[in-house]
Give the backbone structure.
Amino acid sequence: MPELVFFTGTMDCGKSTLAMQIDHNHRARGRAGRVFTSHDRAGEGKLSSRLGLSVEATEVTPDLDFRRLLVQELSGGARIDYLICDEAMFYSGEQVEQLARVVDDLALDVFAFGLMTDFRTRLFPGSQRLLELADRVETLQVEALCWCGRRATHNARTVGGVMVVEGEQVVVGDTAVPPTEAVPVVGYEVLCRRHHLRGITAARGGAAVLSPEPLPFASAQPAGRQG
């Protein structure tokens, strides 16, 4: 039976890498899929991982209607067996409902990937609706680590290395560029609950941010954004 599955975890736990792996595995078995993403680090229309891998994707804009789009494509003769939906926390609640209808009405598998909470520890609207509607919720088992070495459980936004708890929910950052006094960089890092509650980032704790540069693949893209 087709399912709506939500894969979630903190930053750096391999969500986008898993999305590409699942897409590869299904295509290798002769299935046809569509890949969607939103606000990816590599730019519009790309699904990328911090390992430096990337694939083409359809950008999810606020006016995109998943069900209408897929009905049009299927009616036109396209073959679609499943959807890969990365950065699903940035989708609207209505778009998540459309994905649920895609599963129920069109019998397509939907694999959604995203953070559960933002830098303020509040649920993203898309993630909240996925938790309410998904057939299964899978928490990724690859543990991201806080700078102190404990298991990271929270996503933090930093400005010039200092943690902030106010601002817009969606702000693209660059975790690969070190901050300077002249140009304070908006970045993201993962922290354990203890250090998130205390606002102690890697910069304040005197440790390196555990978000490395991508591996030196020829197609590697610079890392960025929360996700």
